[in-house]
Design goal:
Layout: E1 49-52, H1 65-77, H2 79-103, H3 109-162, E2 167-170, H4 171-174, H5 188-198
Parallel strand pairs: 1-2
Helix pairs in contact: 1-3, 2-3
């Protein structure tokens, strides 16, 4: 699912050390030394780094309630087709058992062919319905969750700025790249609590302009 993400960029500063060239001790060839340039130290901006685990947003028990509610609504909308496919699968199994039973005794070719045709038709219909559902599901989920994520990341940006955070990293994306980090750097639980307090599950979702 294509969702807006925060992108954290690292800037690396490379320092090049220049070794002085050793000249011959002949005074005639010794170059006149130029006065060394004055070194000035630029003031670096104060940085504050924090981590947030965006995967925790979708946790059913401790995640963002609006996000969980939106996902559950989509899940509920597909309950009907799931039940229908389940019933069709049971019917397919039933017909398969009946065909196997007919083949084990005196065979009525017409009855056997009718059962076989019914089975193939049911398999074809079930496959089509399943493929349609599999194609529709991610689209419906994206339509439901994208505007919620838009609000979440706007709130996350404001949350970080209000607390002087200059670099916010997604711990879910970094994964094993984080070798060690202080628990104080992780703002996941604090942000979720703050967002939930201001945005209940029934809050109006901001629909982005088309």
């Amino acid at each position: 699912m294509k969702i807006e993400r925060l992108i954290a960029a690292f800037a690396f500063v490379a320092t090049v050390a220049v070794s002085p060239v050793l000249a011959q001790t002949n005074p005639a060839t010794q170059p006149t030394q130029q006065p060394a340039p004055k070194q000035t130290s630029a003031a670096l901006p104060e940085s504050k780094i924090a981590l947030v685990d965006t995967e925790a947003f979708g946790d059913e028990k401790q995640g963002i309630v609006r996000l969980v509610a939106a996902a559950k609504k989509v899940e509920a909308a597909f309950d009907g087709i799931r039940n229908e496919l389940r019933q069709m699968q049971q019917k397919i199994q039933q017909l398969t058992d009946e065909i196997n039973k007919l083949q084990g005794g005196p065979v009525d070719p017409k009855q056997l062919q009718a059962k076989a045709d019914q089975l193939e038709q049911l398999k074809t219909e079930a496959k089509r319905k399943q493929e349609d559902a599999e194609a529709a599901y991610p689209k419906k989920m994206q339509e439901a969750l994208a505007p919620v994520y838009t609000d979440i990341f706007k709130a996350l940006d404001a949350y970080g700025k209000a607390r002087g955070i200059t670099l916010l990293l997604d711990a879910a994306k970094l994964g094993p790249a984080i070798l060690s980090a202080s628990e104080a750097m992780d703002i996941t639980r604090a942000f979720i609590s703050d967002f939930n307090s201001k945005n209940p599950a029934t809050a109006q979702v901001t629909t982005p302009p088309k």
